Amino acid sequence: MNDAVDPEDRKIITLARSARARNGVPEGAAVRDETGRTYVAATVALASLHLSALRTAVAMAVASGAGSLEAAAVVSEADALPDGDLAAVRDLGGPGVPVLLAGPDGRLRETIAAS
């Protein structure tokens, strides 16, 4: 993994990577709220409900009472985030929340501002 990544950001990348691997799904995600709590999720793919890992992590943060987000991470083979993922982060965290996009190996590929 990239040593230039902040240790707290490396932690949420590692959590997202673990969720993806543990559940055998296309994406894993983790978000960190304003108090430092983390929420980890994987892709949800049911017949009646489909959510990206990041939207699921944001929903878990909201359901747990988070007031805002500091950062988010997604681990995926995809080169881009699904439509609407940045909007979900922005809805809770405001514009400018960094979303770290990493590959399955945990290497940071891109940091996107949720603007």
From TrEMBL:
Top-level taxon: Bacteria
InterPro entries the UniProt entry points to: Cytidine_deaminase-like
Name used for this protein in its record: Cytidine deaminase
